[in-house]
Each structure stands twice: as C-alpha cells, then as structure tokens.
Amino acid sequence: MKRAIVLLSGGLDSATCLLIARRKAAEVFALSFDYGQRHRTELDRARALADRYGAAAHRIVKLDLAAPESSALTDPSREVPRHALGAEAIPVTYVPARNTLFLSHAVAWGEAIGAGDLYIGANSLDYSGYPDCRPEFLEAFEKTANLGTKAGVEGSLAFRIHAPLLRLTKGDIVSLAEELGLNFALTSSCYDPRPDGGPCRSCDSCLLREKGFREAGLTDPLTREVTGVKQP
C-alpha cells in the first residue's frame, strides 16, 4: 500500500498538496506543527482540512524552538512587516531551519509507518525568499533522508520529497486548488490574523494569496467583508 505524508500547515499551498497526494497515494497522513507561531489559527484549519479530506491520521507535533526571539512569527514583541513583500531578501518572518525540522519529523514518521513519499508546499517563484523553500535544499534533504535512515540504507523504503507547487505562480496554485475542489474557506494564510481569525491583508503571505486569487480570476472567501469565517 502506497502511503504519503503531507506537511499540512493549514494554508493554501499545503492544502493543495494534500489534495494532490490524495490522488497519488492509497493513504495520506497529515503532519502539522505547533511551534509557538503567532498565527496558531492555522492549526484549527489544518484539523478541519485533515478531517474534510480524509487523512488516515493527523498529528500535531509540539516543537520547542531554541530561540523564538529569532523570528517575527514566534516573537510577539516583533512586528510582522506590512506591505513589504520583496523588501528583504530573507524577511524577519523566516524561522530558523523550520523546514529542516518539519521534514525531519516527516522522515521519522514515514520510516516508522512505511511512507516514503513526503509532500511539502514549498514554492520558489511567488514566495517570501525563505532559503528552505528552494529546490537545492529539497534535493539535498532527500539525499540526506535516504542516507541517514535504516530503511534508506537497507533499501526497504526510498524517500522522495515531492514539492508539486515548486515552480508554479500563486495564480497557478489557486487555479489548481480550484480544479481539485479545495474549499478555500478552510484555509488560512495570514502571518498575523485578526482576533476573529480573519486575515490582516497586509503581511507578505496575505499579499501573495491576494495576488494568486487575482491572477486566477477568483474571489477569496476569506477577504469578504464579514466578521470571521464560518466553516462549512
């Protein structure tokens, strides 16, 4: 039985990967992380997505970051940049080695349950400049996973890092998600949501999401002028 693990943040990209993986694998397992992020509402969205789209299991792993003050996403005293997309090569919302940590947990779980296909919603076109979203990093990590595990060395399981959105524009991603039947209202992309969970519409992630819907010619249900978002 072919099994896959999807890194599911609760955002648009990871939700799209979840739907892609469902078409490729017999069983899909979802993996999310609580690392003290200010946008913790994404974990509620991840739970909703895993339930709606039939994940065989969904784990939320608690990570105790060594230096939460190193990122604006984990230090509430630091400001999330507003209307500043592209202003910095690597913005202050970068979390040190985040995807390395996430993928390492996915490899460990995958080796234990026989799931060699690991999906991540990394993108190297319309993105914030994070170094751990680049194809070079993902290729190197795949080699590391196969060299550093018993299953990889013995040949009983071959790890493959799938980044199906890597070279797509945000508009392409939104169009693909629509084609796959994603309920956009179940996702959250904002780095600094309002108290009701709605998007701020000014952080890098919100601006990228808005760009994607605009390019795809679709309306994002999260940007409608309502108080909160009622999940279907």
What's this entry about, in short?
The protein has a single domain (3-223), classed as HUPs (Rossmann fold).
**Number of beta-strand segments:** 5
Can you tell me the overall shape?
globular
Which CATH C-level class is it?
Alpha Beta
Helix content: 25-40%
- Across the major sheet, the strand order is 3-2-1-4-5
- CATH homologous superfamily - what is it? HUPs
- Gyration radius from CA atoms, angstroms: 17 Å
Distance between the termini: 32 Å
Indicate the low-confidence ranges by residue numbers: 225-232
Number of discrete helical segments: 7
Order of helix and strand elements from N to C terminus: EHEHEHEHHEHH
> What is the count of structural domains?
1
- Approximate strand percentage: 5-15%
- The residue-averaged pLDDT reads 93
Based on secondary structure, the structural category is alpha/beta
Largest sheet: 5 strands, parallel
What does this structure look like?
The chain contains seven helices and five strands; from the N terminus they run E-H-E-H-E-H-E-H-H-E-H-H. The chain has helices at residues 12-24, 41-52, 98-113, 135-147, 150-154, 170-180, 204-216; strands at residues 3-7, 27-34, 57-62, 117-119, 160-162. The model is unreliable at 225-232 (pLDDT under 50). Helix 1 (12-24) crosses helix 6 and helix 6 crosses helix 7 (204-216). The two termini are 32 Å apart. The protein has one domain (3-223): HUPs (Rossmann fold, 3-Layer(aba) Sandwich). It is of the alpha/beta class. The longest helix has 16 residues, at 98-113. Strands 3-2-1-4-5 form a five-stranded parallel beta sheet, sandwiched between helices. The protein is globular. Helix 1 links the parallel strand 1 (3-7) and strand 2.
